Amino acid sequence: MRSCCSSRDRDRDRDRISDLPDEILGKILSLVPTKVAVSTSVLSKKWRMNNNNLLAHVDTLSFDESMVVYPNEEAVSGSSDGFLDFLDKTLRNCPTKTIKKFSLSHRGGSFTRSPAVYGWILSALEEEQGCLEEVHLECTRIEVNLERKLLRSNTLVKLTLSREYCLEVDSVYFPALKSLSLLTVEGLDYNNYRRLIKGCPVLEDLIVTDIGADTLDPYPPCCTTHVKSASIKRLVLSVDMPFGGPHNLHSFHELHDLTYVKAPSLVYLDYSGHVFMDYRFLDLDSLAEVRLNLKLWDHHKPIYGDVTNLAAGIRNITTLHLSPDSLEAFHFCCKSMPVFKNLLNLSIEGNKKKGWQVMPLLLNSCPNLHTLVFKGLVHRVTDKCGDACACTPNNKHNKKMKKKKSKVISCLWTCPVKVLEIVEYGGSFQELKQMRHFLGKLECLETVRVGGIDAADNTIFLRANLLSLPIVSSNCNNIHFI
């Protein structure tokens, strides 16, 4: 009996972690943030004694200063230096050859601390026998200078730069890089940005944001206004530039004059921003899907911008997603709507503050439309929603408009849509009225799908209301609830 108890006690006291091979321990350490990994050395004698050796088997390093809790705001700046000191000591024990993925997010720190840390990162990038595939860097306060005559890596596949980085390079060569994210990099001027893009010959995914930039920045945001690449297949642009004015280094018109995109291999485009004066979208014959969030300038009168060339540049796409703001931008800022002869799928997002004035013109410009999706049917009632809408403006000319409306041939009658899908249906009187309008005029409908009815008390009632609506199309016999 004693021997059994003694055996159990030995098993309980045994350091099982120490029995694991270094390679396995390295894999375990790679799964957690590196600061946590280093602190876990208390778990094992072997871990504690051979921590430096174990780091040689780690293939992922992740450092995030936001995980550090400071007692007050005053302690943040000084402690950032401590965080970088911790990084410096840790990285000295990490061979650059074994790292596959490196992530760093920090607030800043003094200029004397950064060079050592970023020197290690650049050495890892340029390691001839290295295997570094991913690098993600974010600095939120003090600018970090990345100066290099030649910035290169033969193995890097994914790179993210975010916020306070000043890139100064004579040449860039990333022959394997496929994904690049530039997230409001405030110290990136046009020439260095151009060298960076040019040095990525197989780049496929480009994500760029210019949001909340400093109005006195000597480098105005440039990355979202000029994209030229023969290899890019997926492009995400989000721009929110400073307004411009007497206290800015750049005028409003300088900052919002032209957006240029030339990408013959581009398949997917997601563009978000206020309307520019002009767009040059060239060689986009491969483009299939576009998501637009175009916003009007609230403070600029008269209405500023022109999206005519933007619409013309994407006219061959098959799928289009439009935000509520985009509908108004097309209505006020598009001089002529092109024919979207290849468009099969159109997705519209509704908003009670935004109107549908452009809907009749848009639907008439899609002669082969197959699927029409609405994310919410509620929108602002105007006197220009036309025959695509069932809403009626409340004004003294109401009766005259009704008579005039009855004489107009509805664009829905000639609309070839076969699939109508409503997402986030709420069952209000206005929504039910709009559904009656759609079902009573879309003569080619074959399938109707409605989602969003999830209130237990009203589900049966709301579904019954929809199922009682007359459907003009003989090919559509039912409504499917999703």
UniProtKB/TrEMBL annotation:
CDD domains the record matches: F-box_AtFBL13-like
Pfam families tied to this protein: F-box
Domain F-box: 14-66
Signal sequence residues: none
Descriptive protein name: F-box domain-containing protein
Organism (species): Brassica campestris
